[in-house]
Amino acid sequence: MIQAIRLSFRTRRAPLRFRLLTTAASLSAPALVIAIVAVLFQEAAPAVTRFGALFIVARSWNPVTLDFGALPFIYGTLVTSALALAIALPIGIAVAVVLAEPGAQRIRGVAGTGVELLAAIPSVVFGIWALYVLAPLVYTHVELPVAQRLGFIGIFSGQPRQTSLFTASLVLAVMILPTLSAISRDVLRAVPKGLRESAVALGATWWETSWKVVLPAARAGIFGATVLALGRALGETIAVTMVIGNRPDISPSIFAPAYTLASVIANEFTEATGQVYPAALVELGLVLILLTFAVNILALLLVRRSVELPR
Amino acid sequence: MSNLAAYRRPMQSFKPDLRAVPGASPSTLRVQGLSFYYGKTRALKDVSFDIADRRITAIIGPSGCGKSTLLRVFNRMYDFVPGARAEGKVLFEAEDIVTTNRLLELRQKVGMVFQRPSPFPMSIQDNVAFAPRLLGWRRAQVKEAVARSLQAAALWDEVKDRLNAPATSLSGGQLQRLSIARCLAVNPEVILMDEPCSALDPIATLKIEDLMVELASDYTIVIVTHNMQQAARVSDYTAFMLMNQAERFGELIEFAPTGELFNQPRDRRTEDYITGRFG
What we know:
CATH topology of chain A: MetI-like fold
Helix content of chain A: over 70%
Order of helices and strands of chain A: HHHEEHHHHHHHHHH
CATH superfamily of the domain at 2-14 and 54-73 and 103-239 and 256-274 in chain B: P-loop containing nucleotide triphosphate hydrolases
Shape of chain B: globular
Strand content of chain B: 15-25%
Order of helices and strands of chain B: HEEEHEEHEHHHHEHEHEEHH
Shape of chain A: globular
Strand order of the largest sheet of chain A: 1-2
Mean pLDDT of chain B: 87
Distance between the termini of chain B: 32 Å
Largest sheet of chain A: 2 strands, antiparallel
CATH class of the domain at 2-14 and 54-73 and 103-239 and 256-274 in chain B: Alpha Beta
Oligomer: heterodimer
CATH architecture of chain A: Orthogonal Bundle
Radius of gyration of chain A: 24 Å
Number of strands of chain B: 10
CATH class of chain A: Mainly Alpha
Radius of gyration of chain B: 19 Å
Strand order of the largest sheet of chain B: 6-7-8-3-9-10
Number of helices of chain A: 13
Largest sheet of chain B: 6 strands, mixed
CATH topology of the domain at 2-14 and 54-73 and 103-239 and 256-274 in chain B: Rossmann fold
């Protein structure tokens, strides 16, 4: 008996070469992350030593006087992403609920393919579309009327611009929509069929079933989808750069131009000369990475704390 | 071991009363010439029988004979399945279940307990309060319904101190009793059970069986089971179904008081099945 058990253990053990290979492969990802952060630190050293911790809270960005601060970019990045999420989340979940519905076959085919194609559009194409189509439309039909009527409210104040924080958030919303709805759809589909049927059998309507039972059962996964989408929004570069207006200001108005961490790096890297200027840009990259990490870790903690996984 | 003995009941403890004769007891559901299709595939052909009021009716038969399909007609759960369609009649309170538009009312009057317990992702209390709240009952009524249903489902003593705990913290047997409490909350007439014990251990199974017998004094119960002993233990009437091998649809072979069906089956195929010669 004991012999048999030993034997089974031996046969279960993978060959050494295989274990080394898989261990190496699985360690490569964290190793890369560490390496990238290390290099960023090294490259950013001149800026880090010059500005210290003040870099994060300083509001000026002046290549002539070599006076650099990250705050306007952090602000732009966080606000565009948050706004994009606020716009995309309800739509994305609504789309996912319909796509996960076993009854709605025809609409599922059309809408499902549409969502997946949306994910396949390169971001620079989104940028072009946003610049030539979305921005003028939003300017005349949303920004101007809203600013005229509600201009006394801080976030709508000032002279609206075609390229603005708001336009950038809209593009971002469209871009993260596929991520949100595709993952949420898969999560919703994984909700046990019995749960849905039990609710229906108790006399719940489709809406009540979806809203009170299916969505709550999938909340952990939907939260995961949201975090992934947020990650994409924080780091999205080219489309945002094309419509945000590229001005390192912190304006209370969402119709004013702004700047994000990723955009300023993409825009100014080629023209950055000297020692401090490129280092400051690299340090912005470092801030962006840390921001993304922070968001992800926060999300993980929130999931662990508040969401009890359904069986 | 003593625990086990408390739950053990002799085989065939079905109520051997005289009312257990078709027609002698008023019927709640009258199935008349019911056929069922999944798209073009016929799943049931021409099923007719009456389900007695406040009795337990078991539907038995081998896998694929259409017994679950039949059960799901009774509260229109097949509306879920694209292309599914029923023909014929199932009369319930002077209304035809097959054609009714009042689905929500139907499902409140004809509750269902599924094979796998599926607790909603909320507290024990909220699970039971789910259907009453859908109906817009007042807070006091909901509270009363929760206590009453949990008591009727023999779960109250185990959960009364932790009504706000998540339902997922219950054991499998408790969850199945929670499912029963959930559908009792809105005072149904009929409770449909689709193999309610197949995911449970023997002790939990016996508890559910006891509960069924108790509930049968107030509710009409229809249970689908592949466990013949279970049908024999708890039911008053038994319907035996079989798949027609030539044309691949399910049909009702024999319907009789349980004792009769198990002791003197009229049909040869019933006898073969209950004596274990196939299936």
